[in-house]
Amino acid sequence: MGGLGESRRDRLRAATVQEITETARRILVDQGPEAVTLRAIAREMGMTAPGLYRYFGSHAELLRHVVGDIFNDLTAALEEGLRAVPDGDLSGRLLAVARSFRRWAFAHRREYGLLFGSPLPGLTNRKQIDVAEESAQKFGWTFLSLFLELWQKAPFPVPSDDEIEPRLRGQLRRYRDLTLEGGAELPLGVIQTFLQSWVRLQGAVSLEIFGHLEFALDDPEPMFELMLADMAPQLGLKYTPPPGDPAKAAGRGRSGNGHAKHWPKPPTDNEEPDHR
After folding, report:
1. pTM score, two decimals?
2. Is pLDDT of 131 > 90?
3. What CATH number matches the domain at 70-249, 1.20.1180.10, 3.30.830.10, 1.10.357.10, 1.10.1200.10?
4. Spatial CB neighbours of 60, under 8 Å, sequence gap ≥ 6
C-alpha cells in the first residue's frame, strides 16, 4: 500500500509541476517574459507564492522548466516535419527541418524570444545539466544528427583541420569531443560547416522574428528560401522550393540574369529617378 501511495503522490506532484509550467508559459505568451513572476503564477493557479517553493527551489528553476518545455515543443515540431519526408531523401529532410524551425518560430514568437533572444536573468551560465539543458541538447541533436547522416552517406567538401583558422580549431575540437562520444575521427571541417549552417539558419529566422528586416522586406520568406538555395549545394544537396511555391513554376534561379529584370533601370540623363 505504501508503494502505491507514494506512486500516487508522485503522479500528483508531477501533474502540479506540469500545470505550474504551463501556467508560466501562458503568462509568457500573453503578457511577456517580465510578467512571469511567482506571484502572477500563484494568482492564476489559486495558490500562494510561497506554496510554489514546494515544487521549485527558485524562480530561476521554474523558468528553466519553462525553457525545457518550450524546447520539447520545438523538437516535436521538427520531428513532425521530418516524418513527412522519406528517410532516404536527405535534401528534403534538411529543407523540411529548416522550414519547420522557421514555421514554429512564427507561431511562437515569445517562446522563440525566450530561447534565442535576450535571456532572462538566471537562465544563463548554468554549470549543471538540468531539464532545460537536456531538452536543449535534444533539440540540437535533431540538426546535428542530420548533418552526421549526410556526411556518412554523401560526404560534402570540408576544409582540412590545418586549413581551419587556429583560434577556431581548438573551439571546434572541444565542442566535437564534448558533444560526440567517440567522435575524434570526425573532421573538424564537418563541425565547422554544421555551425556555419546553423548560424545562417538561426540568424535568418531571428532577423525575421525580431523585425530586423522590416526596413526593406514585408515578406522575407523568399529571402529565407534564397538562403536555403545557396546553402544546399554547399552540402551537396538539391534545393527544391516548398510545395505550392509560385517560384517553383517560374523556376527560381541563382544566376544574375534570372533576377536582373526585377531591378529598376537607372534613369537616363533626361529622366527623373523612379522612386516607386
Report:
1. 0.80
2. no
3. 1.10.357.10
4. 121, 122, 123
